[in-house]
Write a structure and sequence with these properties.
Layout lengths: L2 H7 L11 H12 L11 H8 L3 H13 L3 E4 L3 E4 L18 H25 L2 H19 L5 H13 L4 H7 L19 H23 L3 H26 L3
Helix pairs in contact: 2-4, 5-7, 5-9, 5-10, 6-7, 6-9, 7-8, 9-10
Length: about 250
């Protein structure tokens, strides 16, 4: 191990969350310039030694960075910071959502976007928008009644709200989430009793119908309140799951 390698190792700080924090740590150091364009990253073994994480977590973190265009790999040479590591576009990929804490960060982002979008949708929705939202809501109701996760239907309903803003940038931004906005693996419906699943479905229907009704009626303030309430309650449920199962 050379002195130069030691200097590189010292830039990799141990993440607070070993499951998902390494990719965030490396991303922050690349974006801040601590890890510079063209710089070779330490080996997997060296990162493991410096951070205390497993080889699997190191590889997942590096895969996430490659998917984002922040690093490149060369056979036999290792991983290097991209010459132009600044992300050209925003996206959320499966490796970003390996923990409930990451899901909560996405919900926090969504709250900022959808709070404004719901208000605009209430002011600008057309009859066609209302029909589209009703269709998406009906599909979500059916999925929940059949005991499914309803992830695709949930996404479609929320996206129809953004379309109703009459601002195409909202829909294009939301497309970066896709069905990853609430990953199926964290819903834990398979762990619920029949009664718990029934209560969960009723709660989801109630919250989504409140959003739809406010937008349909053109009530801007109520639409904003309903979407904030829905996403806040979703975040609270994920926090409870995280605390109960230590899945941060």
């Amino acid at each position: 191990m050379t002195d130069k390698d030691n200097a590189l190792f010292s830039t990799i700080r141990q993440p607070s969350n070993l499951r998902s924090g390494l990719a965030d740590t490396l991303t922050a150091q690349i974006e801040s310039g601590d890890l510079k364009p063209g710089q070779r990253l330490p080996t997997e073994q060296a990162i493991m030694a410096a951070t205390g994480v497993s080889r699997t977590i190191v590889r997942e973190a590096l895969a996430t960075l490659r998917a984002k265009g922040l690093i490149t790999t060369h056979q036999g040479l290792g991983a290097f910071v991209s010459d132009d590591p600044a992300p050209r576009s925003f996206s959320i990929i499966p490796n970003d959502l390996q923990s409930i804490d990451e899901v909560l960060r996405v919900l926090e982002l969504r709250m900022g976007v959808e709070y404004e979008a719901a208000g605009l949708a209430a002011l600008r929705r057309t009859p066609e928008d209302i029909d589209r939202m009703q269709d998406r809501l009906d599909a979500l109701d059916r999925a929940l009644e059949e005991g499914g996760y309803g992830a695709e239907e949930d996404y479609a309903f929320h996206r129809s709200i953004l379309v109703a803003t009459q601002n195409s940038y909202y829909g294009r931004l939301f497309d970066t989430f896709g069905n990853l906005m609430v990953p199926r693996q964290w819903a834990r419906l398979d762990k619920m009793t029949a009664a718990e699943r029934k209560r969960h479905a009723a709660r989801m229907r109630r919250e989504h119908h409140a959003i739809f009704t406010a937008i349909r009626d053109g009530n801007e303030a109520a639409a904003r309140r309903a979407i904030r309430s829905h996403l806040s309650k979703s975040a609270a449920r994920f926090e409870e799951l995280r605390d109960a199962t230590d899945l941060s």
